[in-house]
Write a structure and sequence with these properties.
This protein is mainly α. The chain has helices at 11-22, 27-37, 45-57, 63-81, 88-97, 107-119, 125-138.
């Protein structure tokens, strides 16, 4: 269920749906998304999933999208989902949201990952290895990062 601390709790989901149909994220979309996430309104899980789906889709996006997504979602994930301590289960969920072990992250998702690592007080080695591997793929180096074990998604 969407958050009820906003004037119109369904606006974020409706905007995400219209973006998905249009297949482009515009500055006016980000303004609506920002306003629906402001004033202390907490994101519901379905809203977070909708924003992750937009990021995963890789639609052409305005520059404001990267900042909005990375700041909003990293704050939500670390403070609400992981409680500042990203454990193994939260790391598995995060890696799945980002597209799995071999994901090639776009700028918004990569920035989000970096913000999670900055904000979290504790991160498992597997999440750090995933971040390192994502960075290496972005630089064109395909050597996989060493991992204790493959994470089950």
């Amino acid at each position: 269920m969407a958050s009820t601390s906003r004037d119109d709790p369904g606006i974020l989901l409706r905007r995400c749906e219209s973006i998905a149909l249009r297949k482009e994220i515009r500055a006016e979309d980000v303004a609506v998304l920002e306003s629906s996430c402001s004033a202390g309104a907490e994101l519901a899980r379905e809203e977070a999933d909708a924003l992750f789906a937009l990021a995963y889709a890789g639609f052409p996006a305005c520059p404001e999208w990267r900042e909005f997504f990375s700041e909003t979602m990293s704050g939500w994930f670390v403070e609400t989902y992981a409680r500042n301590n990203v454990g193994d289960d939260a790391a598995r969920r995060l890696i799945a949201w980002l597209g799995g072990d071999e994901a090639r992250l776009d700028a918004a998702r990569f920035r989000f990952l970096m913000r999670v690592l900055e904000r979290a007080s504790l991160c498992p080695d597997d999440l750090l290895a995933f971040a390192r591997a994502a960075m290496m793929r972005a630089m064109g180096v395909e050597k996989p990062a060493p991992r204790r074990e493959r994470l089950a998604v």
